[in-house]
């Protein structure tokens, strides 16, 4: 594993974790009294699904790699750019009223975890298409998401929802940038 690959996977993990961070901030905003031992299961669930979904996408991508390998870099670019632009648009939209929800209910935690991990499935698909080994990226993605989620709940107790929206914009820029990097590497290298 090269240093450049580590940085790339870390940035992908950071970009993917912004949805979970925003959800965690909302949890902190809704439950100002949230304690560490209450935050851990929420952060673990968000991180677990964020790590498992790329593995599922990777398996799918590996199985169809031979069919689409001539254009895999374009597909990876398109998927990452689509997700990045979607995140940027979500961050730019005007703030609506926060939904009232109880983040301590298992059904809510799992629902939030799945909802924030769909983009990770697409990233995993890109990894499979590009024949990138998956163990290290999913470990990094899971760890970064866990830390971001714990920090999000802590910050949610202290900051406004506006700052969590800015994190979505940053995450979108990171994912789009990585998509451009993949495309340029395959075109020029």
UniProtKB/TrEMBL annotation:
It is found in: Cell membrane. Belongs to the MntP (TC 9.B.29) family. Pfam families: Mntp. This is Putative manganese efflux pump MntP. It comes from Mariniphaga anaerophila. InterPro entries: Mntp/YtaF (IPR003810), Put_MntP (IPR022929). Its main location: membrane. GO terms for cellular component: plasma membrane. Probably functions as a manganese efflux pump. GO terms for molecular function: manganese ion transmembrane transporter activity. It is a multi-pass membrane protein. Keywords: Cell membrane, Ion transport, Manganese, Membrane, Transmembrane, Transmembrane helix, Transport. The gene is mntP. PANTHER family: MANGANESE EFFLUX PUMP MNTP-RELATED (PTHR35529:SF1). It comes from the Bacteria. The chain crosses the membrane at residues 6-27, 39-59, 71-89, 109-128, 134-156, 168-188.
């Amino acid at each position: 594993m090269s240093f450049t690959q580590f940085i790339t996977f870390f940035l992908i993990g950071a970009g993917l974790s912004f949805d979970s961070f925003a959800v965690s901030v909302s949890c902190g905003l809704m439950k100002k009294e949230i304690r560490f031992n209450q935050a851990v299961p929420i952060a673990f669930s968000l991180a677990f699904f964020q790590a498992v979904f790329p593995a599922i996408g990777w398996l799918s991508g590996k199985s169809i790699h031979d069919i689409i390998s001539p254009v895999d870099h374009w597909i990876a670019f398109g998927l990452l750019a689509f997700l990045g632009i979607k995140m940027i648009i979500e961050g730019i939209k005007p703030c609506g009223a926060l939904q009232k929800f109880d983040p301590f209910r298992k059904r809510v935690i799992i629902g939030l975890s799945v909802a924030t991990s769909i983009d990770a499935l697409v990233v995993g698909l890109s990894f499979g298409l590009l024949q990138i080994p998956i163990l290290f990226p999913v470990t990094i993605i899971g760890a970064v998401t866990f830390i971001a989620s714990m920090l999000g709940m802590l910050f949610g107790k202290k900051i406004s929802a506006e700052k969590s929206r800015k994190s979505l914009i940053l995450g979108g820029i990171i994912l789009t940038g990585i998509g451009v990097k993949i495309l340029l590497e395959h075109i020029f290298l």
